[in-house]
Amino acid sequence: MAPLLILRDVHLAYGSTALLDGAEMSVESGERLCLVGRNGSGKSTLLKIAAGIVEPDLGERFVQPGATIRYLPQEPDFSGFETLGDFVRAGLTPGDDAQRAESLLRQAGLSGHERTGDVSGGEARRAALVRALAPASDILLLDEPTNHLDLPGIEWLENELAAMRSALVLISHDRRFLTRLTRTTLWLDRGRTLKLDHGFARFEAWRDATLEQEEIDRHKLDRRIVAEQDWLRHGVSGRRKRNQGRLAGLMALRRERSEQRRIAGDPKLEAAEAEGSGTLVAKAFRVSKSYGEKSVVKGFSFRLYRGNRVAVIGANGAGKTTLVDLLTGRLEPDAGSVRLGLKVLIARLDQDRSTLLPDATLAEVLTDGHGDTVVVDGKPRHVISYMKDFLFAAEQARQPVSVLSGGERARLLLAKALAAPSNLLVLDEPTNDLDLETLDLLEEMIADYDGTVLLVSHDRDFLDRTASSVLMAEGGGRFVEYAGGYSDMLAQRGEGIVAKAAAKAAPKAAAAPREKTGGRRMTFKDKHALSELPKTIARAESLIASLQKELADPSLYARDATRFASLSESLAEAQAHLAEAEDRWLTLEMLREEIEG
């Protein structure tokens, strides 16, 4: 079968930097292909060349006569359109089915009357998808189609694409999305492309094996060069005519080695950690929040303990970010109370990247505009050294934010958030635009983080790998907690993500705890306890530190097993006493604030 689209030996450079260096792509009818590679490797640029939007410096682009191509950019342009319906209909050609466009708008939860200047990121993304999917096409080129989509939206898109006959070329960070939809993988690595005749499910093992073999081949070449250099120094004179061939061979080996493509180092994601918080990090009691007549959070009670990894999930507009802001004290509730525990220090990554000023340089963002030093974990580091941990080159320090790709902006925000000391990490949509390698390292960083993590995400695979429990928005401002990650939540609910109720599946432990505050007055005993409990907590923490220090002696158990057992028992009792004291202190503080407020 003749390919519908061919890119052959494509080269493109920006200034002195080669972005594409002989990249190739071939798309046949009905192809299901994913284009993968690191942030900044040129995936979006290659897709634009395939769409005919960008001209390469060198190379060939061939499209079968009569073949139609539709392209979804990462950031659609709504300028010139008053409503989303106008934007969608402008993408139709005379032969296209207008009814399909209207039907897809309704399926995407849009009326078409939404004003383009007032829509959310999710609504903008759904409208752009409808514009790309509505016309009949032979090839669909989709750049990060799941960005800004909620979980119901991702499932809707998966079902639509699975049912289409068009060939698909997908760029996405969503592993589960790629695994379900693709049958071929094209890896863009250091300017060139390698093809795997299997879907994304087999890509990562194949990539790792390819890189391992590359390292073995490089090592063999280095050994050959060393051997030939030894001959040149100590063997028969290289000036003799019969040895000129061997000398030329050495020069060729050196040239081959110098031209070999080297993969960039891995980013180093490490959160700057502060002193540990108390056992109870945050406590919410019958919290409610409304915007106008819409109840976003209603009667929510919850305890967040040190070391928890809690994910908040649900449809767009369900109140996920609002709930996180309530739990972390950024937002005041309309009713109920929230109290942070002792010694809580928060580092926050917001999903709104508009906070990055387009004219600011990378160095200015990381240093807050002050010099060349960034404070990481309380220690000064040169900004370029810190940038390299997140795969930014030294020459990018003075580049403006406006030239960065979406993935590079995501890494820049991560770098800024992780520099601040914290014991509570708040991540709102951290996976948007990140490449797969950086996602892996973000997952490892969360696993190694000694503090507590609150995150909002629509990436199902990421949720399964990181969350210890899930707070699911069930509608009407109601949130229910499920143990485990996304797949565990689905199993416990017994229903899909779009279900509105899960009364039978919801675990009893997730029900809002009922607390008695004893009315709206504090007794003398309560007031005395409130003043004395911080001292009790401090003594308990001191005792725990002392016990842990003694138990850290590796020879203690062998020397005195009885003493080891006694200390272990005392440590467990002290930790339980500390947790009880912190819980009591938070309850009394909330009562005091309720009375005084």
What keywords describe this structure?
alpha/beta, Rossmann fold, six-stranded mixed β-sheet, globular, 3 domains, 597 residues, Helix Hairpins
What topology does this entry show?
Elements: E1 5-14, E2 17-27, E3 32-36, H1 43-51, E4 58-63, E5 69-72, H2 84-89, H3 98-107, H4 121-133, E6 139-143, H5 151-163, E7 167-171, H6 175-181, E8 184-189, E9 192-196, H7 203-234, H8 244-259, E10 280-291, E11 294-305, E12 309-313, H9 320-327, E13 335-340, E14 346-349, H10 362-367, E15 373-376, E16 379-382, H11 383-389, H12 406-419, E17 424-428, H13 436-448, E18 452-456, H14 460-466, E19 469-475, E20 478-483, H15 486-493, H16 524-551, H17 556-559, H18 561-596
Parallel strand pairs: 3-7, 3-8, 5-6, 6-7, 12-18, 12-19, 14-17, 17-18
Antiparallel strand pairs: 1-2, 1-4, 8-9, 10-11, 10-13, 15-16, 19-20
Report on this structure:
This protein has 597 residues and is an alpha/beta fold. It has three domains: 5-68 and 137-205, P-loop containing nucleotide triphosphate hydrolases (Rossmann fold, 3-Layer(aba) Sandwich), CATH 3.40.50.300; 280-510, Rossmann fold (3-Layer(aba) Sandwich), CATH 3.40.50.300; 524-596, Orthogonal Bundle (Helix Hairpins). It contains 18 helices and 20 strands. The strands form five sheets. The chain has a six-stranded mixed sheet with strand order 5-6-7-3-8-9, sandwiched between helices. The protein is globular.
